[in-house]
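User: what does the whole thing look like in 3D?
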Amino acid sequence: MKKNDIIKLKITSMTSQGSGVGKNDDGIVVFVPFCAVGDEIEAKILKVKKTYAYGKIERIINPSYFRITPDCEAFTKCGGCAYRHLSYNSEKEIKRHRVIDAVERIGGLSGIKVKEVVDNKRLSRYRNKAQLPCKNTESGVEFGFYAAHSHRIIPLSDCLLQPKLFKKVIGITEDFMRETAQNAYDENSEQGKLRHLYIRYAEMTNQLMVCFIINGNGLKHEDVLVKTLKENIPELKTVVFNSNKEKTNVILGSKNRVAYGNGYIEDILCGKRFRISPLSFYQVNRSQAEKLYTIARDYAELKKGDVLLDLYCGAGTIGLTMADKCKKLIGVEIIEDAVKDAYINAGLNGINNAEFICGDAEYAAEKLRTDGIKPDVIVVDPPRKGLTPELIDTIVEMNPERIVYVSCDCETLARDLKQFNANYYSIKEITPVDLFSRTPHIECVCKIERTKS
Ligand code: SAH
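Assistant: Here's the predicted 3D structure for the full assembly of 453 residues, as structure tokens:
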């Protein structure tokens, strides 16, 4: 087998990342994205390694039973969705097996109960946030999405994961940039002003935040842009200009300037009101996040006298939805604005047993431990890279009865569970929750219990 060969393949399984797996006549494994189990295809070989190869679909000879017709023109080109060609049931099956596989292979754990994936009833337009890059074209600035594993921008006027409303913001911004002859930022030349358009929508309160990320401090004639947005979008609550002059992949800079409104929006989650400002994390799928937090709250099994430590707490959302169940809540979060939001959020909901610390979870937890704080339950919700071994050691030394691990990356979750399992804690149960339908990602919540002190 060599590059550019066209071979026949029958897809017999899927990888955890969603590629189809088939074997050629010599038994060499070929990975082909955007396939379904049962597909018979002609694949074009793109890259050959010693024991396996990568290919792409050249032609589908016989489609799998699990296939559906993709409903998006950018599917397979844009790096967002992986499963628009599959029935939702098979997507959930693949995701559940991704979790089981990670726990067994990376975590070295067997017999862990992994529940059925919690359904997302709304497979389209469930996201409440978009961060759109833009580029200069002959007809002006155009927004789009990054192609998979690249910074090439695929133009797309509508994304089926996002609210329809976002299209309006995109259109107004593109028109404004063209009419005022301003440019998109170019990563290579480091020239141009507009880097990203960042939009957030609070669906329960119908409030929209629009944030422009600028290589500089602002845009020329930006008052006209703000006025046009205000006149055309009744949902608009605030407009913020974020300044990012660094040569970096990080989208947001640290400085915000409010051009309209208060600089934040508010949403309702699990019956509580939350203020979210641009730099604060907020789950992108609100209704599924409610299910996630409800399971986390059940797993925590808090008692009236308990101390709850919420590590990686963002704007306080998880801890604040549990605070009525315990004596004291301590949250830890590294982003200062999120900590400010967390305090306000406690106030908005009449919660007065909460305290928030701004700092790195690893060091803050160690400080709390040496200060003699003994949490009964610890919730962790780290970014994709998971926990550090040092933080896990500190958590174990704090000796909580229970740990609830919320994770957006089941591979790092599995790695961390291995360390907990080797240190007097046992993994009780994992529930995957489908927060990111049609994409390869799966959120998990895991209950971990102390076996002995
Ligand atoms: N639990 C929150 C936020 C989860 S996202 C929610 O459900 O909304 C992860 C959070 O961890 C983000 O707010 C991020 O800013 C924060 N974070 C990232 N690295 C951190 C670190 N080293 N220490 C503390 N917080 C960190």
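In plain terms: The radius of gyration is 24 Å. Residues 6-67 form a domain with the OB fold (Dihydrolipoamide Acetyltransferase, E2P) fold (CATH 2.40.50.140).
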